[in-house]
Amino acid sequence: MLQGVKQFLYRSAEYHWNNIVNVGVHPAMPYIESRRTKLLNLLSLPCIPFMFFYCILNTIQGRYILAALNAITTTTSVLVLIFHKKRMYLSARIVLICISILIYTFTGVYFHNGAEYFLLNILFIVILIYDNKWVVGSLSVLVIAAFMLIVFMPRSWYLAPPVPVERVWFNVAVALAFVVVALSFFKYIQSDYQREIEQQRQTLVSMNKDKEKLFSIVAHDIRSPLATLESLLDMFRKGQYPRDDMEEAADVLYKKVAQLGVTLDNVLRWSTRSMKGIQTRPRHFLLAPVVTEVLHFFELIIQQKQITVELQIPVSTALYADRDQVSVILRNLFSNALKFSYTGGQIEVKAQITDEVVITITDHGVGMSPQQLSTLFTSHQHPGYGTDGERGTGLGLLLCREFAEQNGGVIKVTSLRESGTSFTLLFVKGDFSPEDEAAFN
């Protein structure tokens, strides 16, 4: 019980302390300005009880002028917090620096109470919170002149009885402690700023990698329809289509242009969503419609290579993953299967529901050697040419593995030379029905 009360009091004190130290700091502030504001708060806070205590003590001891000056210093520290609260940052700095220079110079000259060391605090504050070299230079000269005035002026000038030596030593110790606090906090600012810069650098590196992936996806998804269009137009140019077949070919060409438009819309939509970095957003969805989209995407290539596609996907097969990323994976794997299949070959796309969803894409094409398999999902792979001279970039399979892992899935591959290749995908089982898919669409 007692331990719980202590923890509550500690958390409450910590909460209120953080609120006071961060007075005037708001999320829209530049990083350095927020830290400078916090530094002034941190230096002003202890001054309030410290100077208020000396105000009472000097009043009791009959040093009324010094007590009045202590009261002004206390009020100045409170004003700094108030100005910060009202976001009057320039006013807070001017009030703190100007009044402090005047008061510490006056008390140092006439009371010899060690106030010159408090001027050192002002000097450090000026250097830390201002960037303008003229402002820093002018105020520094003023503070240094005040410091030298206190040190070299005759010690016989008193407006009140001298303060005890013990008080002077205590004042000097407190002033130097403030210097240590200011420098320590500045060092913390610098290290924190460096960490912030490093974090931003890492974010930029990550975003650049994501941008490269997006470019590879865009290039992959646009290149295939464009290659088909190029092939059709070349056949038109060479007169390989009889006049009677021109109308049918024009209809095919129209469908491919329309398909390319849909592809561009999908890719641009997905790319726009990923502009701040590729993000995985899993949801429940049916697998069959995604596979249908993929097959429609490669429809003309399937016809040109006379590939037979065998589908075995239960209608109720559902995944819990990012639908767009799964679509990218399937497009890449099916594109590879088409690329390395011989004309008149066969590709099987199957799905099986167990504790998870198992998807296999199998071709009976050129296959791969053990050496190719060992480097397949690395940047050291050497993509080969397809059976019709198609050339890959080697980036597709890297994306497939990364997207599969980001969705809690696994990708495996088996292959034999001249026997074909089989890719297996394991994904989290979803909870979705055909009626849900229709309602969602």
Automatic annotation (TrEMBL):
InterPro entries listed in its UniProt record: BphY/WalK/GraS-like, HATPase_C_sf, HATPase_dom, His_kinase_dom, HisK_dim/P_dom, HisK_dim/P_sf, Sig_transdc_His_kin-like_C
UniProt EC number: 2.7.13.3
Keyword check for Kinase: yes
Residues annotated as domain Histidine kinase: 217-431
SUPFAM superfamilies hit by this protein: ATPase domain of HSP90 chaperone/DNA topoisomerase II/histidine kinase, Homodimeric domain of signal transducing histidine kinase
Transmembrane segments: 39-57, 63-83, 90-111, 117-132, 139-157, 169-189
GO cellular component terms attached to this protein's record: plasma membrane
Record keywords: Kinase, Membrane, Phosphoprotein, Transferase, Transmembrane, Transmembrane helix, Two-component regulatory system
Superkingdom, taxonomy of origin: Bacteria
GO biological process, one term: cellular response to phosphate starvation
GO molecular function terms noted in the UniProt entry: phosphoprotein phosphatase activity; phosphorelay sensor kinase activity
Catalytic reaction annotation: ATP + protein L-histidine = ADP + protein N-phospho-L-histidine
Record-given protein name: histidine kinase
